[in-house]
Specification:
Layout: H1 2-36, H2 42-74
Helix pairs in contact: 1-2
């Protein structure tokens, strides 16, 4: 049981780190897009953030499924 708890803590730490990195990349990319295309309208900035966030979330879920699929076949 001790190994299971440690594994769960490690998984939680990994997901927290991945989410933090994802949010940092998301903020940087949204800022880059807004300044590159001179989007000053707040509604436009929100739309860019939502679209980019949705795409990043889909990419994150795709990577998660691929790694889960690989680990299922490995065992």
């Amino acid at each position: 049981m001790a190994n299971n708890g440690k594994s769960l803590e490690l998984k939680f730490a990994f997901y927290t780190l991945a989410a933090t990195i994802l949010v940092a990349i998301w903020a940087f990319a949204c800022n880059l897009i807004n300044t590159t295309f001179a989007i000053v309208n707040p509604i436009g900035q929100i739309i860019v953030a939502l679209v980019f966030g949705f795409l990043a979330f889909k990419l994150f879920m795709l990577i998660r499924e691929k790694t889960k699929h690989k680990s299922d076949h490995a065992s």
